[in-house]
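re: ur question from yesterday

yeah so i grabbed the chain u mentioned. its 690 aa long if i counted rite. heres the sequnce exactly as i have it in my notes:
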Amino acid sequence: EALLGRATSAAAVTIGGNVAAVATSSPGVAAVAAVPPGKGEARGEPREAGSPCAARSLGGSLLVSSPSSKITQPGDVSAVVVEDQPDVSAVLSAYNQQGDPTLYEEYYSGLKHFIECSLDCHRAELSQLFYPLFVHMYLELVYNQHESEAKSFFERFHGDQECYYQDDLRVLSSLTKKEHMKGNETMLDFRTSKFVLRISRDSYQLLKRHLQEKQNNQIWNIVQEHLYIDIFDGMPRSKQQIDAMVGSLAGEAKREANKAKVFFGLLKEPEFDVPLDDEDEEGENEEGKPKKKKPKKDNVGSKSKKQDPNAPPQNRIPLPELKDSDKLDKVMNMKEAARRVRLGPECLPSICFYTFLNAYQGLTAVDITDDSSMIVGGFADSTVRVWSVTPKKLRSVKTAADLSLIDKESDDVLERIMDEKTASELKILYGHSGPVYGTSFSPDRNYLLSCSEDGTVRLWSLQTFTCLVGYKGHNYPVWDTQFSPYGYYFVSGGHDRVARLWATDHYQPLRIFAGHLADVTCTRFHPNSNYIATGSADRTIRLWDVLNGNCVRIFTGHKGPIHSLAFSPNGRFLATGATDGRVLLWDIGHGLMVGELKGHTDTIYALRFSRDGEILASGSMDNTVRLWDAVKAFEDLETDDFTTATGHINLPENSQDLLLGTYMTKSTPVVHLHFTRRNLLLAAGAYSSQ
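ran it thru and got these structure tokens back, copy pasting raw so excuse formatting
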């Protein structure tokens, strides 16, 4: 398969054990060439998996994309010539243009003094320079082997940096010799991806004038070489506005990154007749009744009869056709929806909590089927356990010999093929050889996905409770996987920093989404299946286009690795949760942050919108479920042209107005949330005794 998708300037993807160099050619096409691992090359030691700066040890040297590579045909992978791959030392050599090492502290404190004495309106914006300059000046000293000066520089100024950079500074403090830099990928990323700062033209002119007057070339060189300053016209931003948006590994997103058009609308539902309920049939003698009832039923199915102007074309990506069983399920869904509780501040959902007791195997992932009939747990002992949460037990299909005796024409053939002898409430699936970090049921409930530290994603049949396929593409732990809302496609993301799009009937990925600077920790499909959101330990969220593999949105603002994502049912908004205990709300169409929900005191592992999108539920390691008023959070949004152009967002001061309720467990961290079709909220987690 030719892999479509634009790789970022320093993305390397691993395929089948080899490192693949990504050569960027025409926009939207990345060709991939596999390179065998080199002999005797240093391996970077992997840091604790999942940490914000987890390094990858690749079986060979890290290869960086080269824009000049010759590509014969976009689809011709074998004929790719990858030229002049710069090695690590070439990447670092930019640090050669050094000044007098003894003056670095003076340069930095001079700039610090200038910024702190500037007008309030400029101070907040220019203060963003402190961290990237500190890192690059420190690395320049280390690279040029001025170890004592570097140590003194670090000790004097590291305390001035913002608290959310502490983890990165810890990594930096361990780089004290030139040799350390060569194997460190966090370092490489910092070098190769320019740190982005968004500054008003007035503040930028002030800085430029100051550096030129002082003839402070050292700092000016770093600004030009290593920073990308996104200059906008207009008022400088306030400290609060900047604080809301910064904190990621590579600074803010460039404004261009969020300009592409995104089709965030929903696809039109297929039309089919909803059969009448038994209750309706009773009224058929009286002429008027069924006629009145029928339109009411049809309205449920006709939510999206009119084409949404923001929706993608129906055939933009090929989606699987609806089988009869899917249609039946849709009908059931509509009937349930007709009885759905309308939620709101005055009508909060009941919450049913599934607590996993004695889960000494270590519960690492949970999913619940759309119809809330089954629950699955992924465990650290590498098992996947499926429970039935209705009185109906789980049964396997009969053996081939028994199946041959069944009358294929009988009405209850689906019932007859099930083997009663296998009925049980729990099925345990064995196959992984490491903790299972992600699980996902297919929409039709026939399949189950699981992904593990062993680097594989497995597809299980829920008819036979056996493994059908093991997908091997990631060489490192896979942190999350999820089925498309239409089935067939699924996405996975892992420690190798890329997300992959798969189809159940292909053993190789269809798309590779490369661009994150650290582990991809969570993945989610947009409700229309044309886009995928990924959250990462680099503290950014990216939205990818499934059609061409392009990154169409980059959201920055979280101060820790992202662990949960949820799209609103109408497809317009995205909610994200991270280790910083904040839930951030994003407007996908405009590419803007539109809300911040504060209240949790620990990592947020679960986010879910109610079926009609009125309420957002969040679940956290702080043992609470919180309910937020989503309608109020998204009304009266400031999405005028000025806000979109400059990113001047004005978040409401107090998110407590949006908090509708906090529900404590005794000692159970919340790892999963799910709204049933009638809007009952299900939550799940494993009781922890400490």
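noticed a couple things. DSSP finds 18 helices and 34 strands in the chain. also The first strand starts at residue 12 and ends at 15.
anyway ttyl
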